[in-house]
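Hi W.,

Here's what went into the run:
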Amino acid sequence: MDILQVRNLKKSFSEQIAVDDISFTLGKGSIFGLLGPNGAGKTSLIRMITGIFYPDEGEILFDGRPFHPESDIVHIGYMPEERGLYKKMKIGEQAVYLAQLKGLSKQDATKKVKDWFVRFEMQSWWNKKVEDLSKGMGQKLQFVITVLHEPRLIILDEPFSGLDPVNSNLIKDEIYKLAHNGSTIIFSTHRMEQVEEICDHIILMNKGEKILDGSVAAIKQQFKENLFSIGLEDMPASGSGDIDGAAEIGSQAFEVVGRKEGHLIVKIREGYGPNDVLKYFIGQGQGITGFMEILPSLNDIFIKLVEGTPLSRQFQPLTR
Amino acid sequence: MNKIWLITKREYLTRVRNKTFLLSTFLLPLMIVLFIAGSILLSLQGKTRHRIAVVDANGYFKEYLKSDSSIRFDFSAGLDTLNYQQRGCTAVLIIPVLKEDQRTIYRLKYKKQLGLAGVSDLEGRISDAITDHLIFEKTSISREKLDSIRKSSDIAVLISFEDNGTTARASSQGLAYGIGYASGLLIYILTFIYGAAVMRGVMEEKTNRIAEVIVSSVRPFQLMMGKITGIGAVGLTQFLLWIVLIVGLAVIGQGLIPRDTWNEVQQMQQASAMGNASAAKAGEAAQQIFKVKSALDTANWGLILFCFLFYFIGGYLFYSSLFAAVGSAVNEDPQEAQSLMLPITMPVIFSFIVMSIAVQDPGGSLATWASIIPFSSPIVMMARIPFGVPGTVPWWQLGLSMLLLIVGFLFTVWLAGKIYRTGILLYGKKATWKTMLKWAFKA
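Here's what came out:
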């Protein structure tokens, strides 16, 4: 059963269309990446899913039923990019208060907060005020508050920004654990390497529209350019005027498009396969030190698809 | 509903546990008392004594213009309009020969202003002096007789009664004026204090950047109402503490009155209840206390307190929701808040001005209308009520005023809710009332 179904969602503000006919489905227990340049509409989309905004058109189904913010909000945890907490309030008290707002009883909330604090080694900080925390502590606290009430859908907007590697790892492990336990996680970020590492599935938005929707593996396959990297013991010399010694290599099967230390980057032509590359070099008496496909990075795919977005869109102020 | 209660609790406890709460609760009345005492002291001290030289062609003013603590008249020979300053005077009064059946101009030349009160006081003294002189000239009455007549004319005391049809109760105009003005003033001050507190409270979510987190757990309207009721509860608590303080001081004050005096007061009360005022028997102190007590008894305290609470709460809800709307639209810069607050503070200040007029003419049409319209009713109606319900204020006026106030705050709360839900999530754009109203009505 899918935790979230979004159908033909639309949202405009007086100056532009923020979300333009978006549809997608999220299954349980997986980690989704929500990507897109600034101004793509990610935040507006998220705000509709969390019930902060109402869509102009379209529908949202939560766990198979029409989304009803009042009652469904307790099953959703949201960590916005704009991180904030009551600075002057003590953190233990504050975490309990926020959990109560999500519908937990006071005893329940207190117990859960204590457990999480111990897990994150924050128990001695219970009576400290938020303004006395270091940035890393603050982020950990924010994370705890987001997942405390065991939500089925967790939305994290740039959760790792400002975290050192140790704390980043800690949060990452928690995210895996949560997904493993059946929670669905929407993870919005600009850091593609994290997306590749953590997410199963991604959705790429641009100018309010959905551009990509699929598993990471499938998308990489979709955009691959048949590039391979072959390591050679005896690298051919580059000729003068020729691109990387291409003229030296007489093969129909591929062309050389680049070179690195000890490797040639080749692009296999239509109708040929990797074996043809190997056959060629082996036929030349070359010693092969390595051979692998170069799949495009999500970063590259992102840039390719999104290039040309007018910069102005990133700075359109939202009026609602 | 439950969420509003949670938020109210948090807002209330956060503020009440703060040290500044206790400080301001006890400090504020202290400051008000000091302020009043201080201004009374200053006004007493500030009276300078004027020395006025008198050049009198008639020759008799010396007899009748007497010097006292505020004016010293100098009738020395040889004083004129050129040398009065050297002789130590600040002004010179030149009175030519006064003729009967004519109005002659007499002049005052001053180095130092006497002020409006001073001049009219002087006029009064001159005219009294002329009257006295004419009496002695035209009649054969002696000075002692005249003085004793003056003293013994103080044989009547006025008490005014309000005619309610079936009963007539004694009313004290002075007291009504005092209570009316004080209540109106108090509501005026409290509206500003707590309205501003609501505005700052609403800005808290924005400056802490926690608005989005909270709004993903509760509806913006619930957050706004929680803040308004929480801060309102703090206000009520402070108010109740002040009442306790005043009652405590009154009890202590009563305890300081010696037993005998108090017994005398009791006797006088019993006597007047039976219809005869045997004032002559009791001592000075007891008489004073009796006067104060009977004056205080003329007021319908139950009704006044009930109405005060109603108008305090109603006025608070009416105005604080507007303050909340402003707070939600402001981006941390207190300057922006000032210009947005103007449309709210203007009616409040206007109400106060109307109130000052209303206490002098509580039955007039300005006072009546202003006490019914929700913008000004909390302040103006409270000023009118001590003058008597249903005498000065008919029941239908009171009822209509209360009804309209309720409708009024339901409307402002609704309006504020719409502005608030957009305002708290918006950063960076400078808002004007025009844009705020667009948020509200574009739905």
